[in-house]
Design goal:
Blueprint: H1 2-9, H2 13-21, H3 30-49, H4 53-62, H5 72-79, H6 86-90, H7 94-97, H8 102-119, H9 136-144, H10 155-169, H11 173-183, H12 189-197, H13 201-209, H14 218-240, H15 249-265, H16 282-304
């Protein structure tokens, strides 16, 4: 709820819409329909308040009109606020005057949406985060894998890799790349290349900026410069496309290959390009191992120890967070996040 509220307060309507859409759809029920309508209506009114008539018309024509007859009455009330008459029609309206103070209006609007969200049966059981001790997962990992001299990374860093693997295996791609960007322990070069080929220049630039800056070295400067050049060329090409149709995809793939080579040669990134070898589903297996011990142990201790503190003595430990003792380690590669364990014949298990 806080993340959604922050998007409202900053006027990031697409971000708020995308977040809400992950939990409910327009057609789910009348509460959801009303939520989406109010979101787009607020966006519409703020465009009017800024006298951005073109945007207001675009919102009305392409967003507000998508709503069905359930909201037809409100749409009809907005219908006259179009084209050249938008500004003069609304400036004297009492309704628009409440939109003049953006911060206070968004604050009230956020509270209004929160109340609507709480009444939506689809969202009601998703609004309270369960009570969890601070740093619970890190504390658990520290218990089951005590620090030893052989560990070349901190436990926290190894936990981040385990979480990245989990997100990748569960196909939580957006969260995966967001965590990579924020923790800066692993640079997914394939994701970067994919962004370049798909012409998501801003996304590629933002991802790269988390790991290196333009003035760090000549490799970084070259990559950033090439991204800016591609953005410029695309803007120019879009104006020429109708007269001279072309297929830019091949050129983008070639450029992405060059950028990949530059990134691999960049000394700032070299240690972040290889994902360590980790047994499949390692984090889930570690947690299961701990819980398989904890649940019966807790039940026994609670039954027999009265009000005494429950002991953690005897909790199972592992010497390596990334591998079970019997697994065979394989060379790290950025091409895969999980390395399969091998059987005695050198063949991957479960095949």
């Amino acid at each position: 709820m806080n993340h959604f509220g922050e998007a409202i307060m900053s006027g990031e309507w697409e971000k708020a819409d995308k977040y809400l859409s992950a939990f409910t759809k327009l057609a789910d029920n009348r509460h959801s329909k009303k939520l989406f309508f109010e979101l787009h209506k607020q966006k519409y009114f703020e465009a009017l308040d800024r006298e951005d008539h073109a945007l207001a018309i675009n919102i009305f024509e392409n967003e507000l009109k998508l709503f069905s007859v359930v909201t037809l009455a409100e749409l009809l009330a907005l219908k006259d606020l179009r084209h050249d008459s938008i500004s003069c029609t609304l400036k004297n309206e009492r309704q628009l005057s409440s939109y003049m103070n953006v911060t206070s209006t968004r604050d009230e609007f956020r509270d209004f949406l929160k109340q609507m969200i709480k009444r939506n049966p689809i969202l009601q059981d998703k609004l309270e985060f369960p009570s969890v001790e601070e740093s619970a997962l890190l504390s658990l990992i520290n218990l089951i894998c005590p620090k030893n001299a052989k560990m070349t990374r901190s436990v926290k860093e190894e936990l981040i890799y385990l979480i990245l693997q989990f997100l990748d295996e569960e196909n939580f791609k957006e969260t995966l790349h967001k965590l990579e960007l924020e923790t800066k322990v692993y640079f997914d070069i394939d994701y970067f290349v994919e962004c370049m080929i798909n012409r998501n220049w801003d996304r590629a630039e933002k991802y790269l900026s988390a790991f290196t800056k333009m003035d760090d070295n000549r490799y970084s400067m070259d990559v950033f410069s090439r991204i800016q050049k591609l953005k410029h060329f695309e803007a120019v090409d879009s104006r020429r496309q109708e007269k001279h149709p072309s297929n830019p995809e091949k050129g983008h793939e070639c450029e992405a290959t060059i950028l990949k080579m530059l990134l691999e040669e960049n000394p700032i990134l070299q240690e972040k390009l290889k994902f360590p070898s980790i047994d499949k589903s390692r984090l889930k297996k570690l947690i299961k191992k701990a819980m398989d011990w904890w649940i019966p142990h807790f039940a026994y201790m609670k039954h027999n120890a009265s009000n005494l503190a429950i002991s953690l003595k005897g909790i199972p430990t592992v010497p390596d967070l990334f591998h079970a003792p019997a697994s065979v380690k394989i060379e790290s590669s950025h091409e895969g996040r999980s390395s399969p364990a091998l059987n005695g014949d050198g063949v991957p298990k479960n095949r």
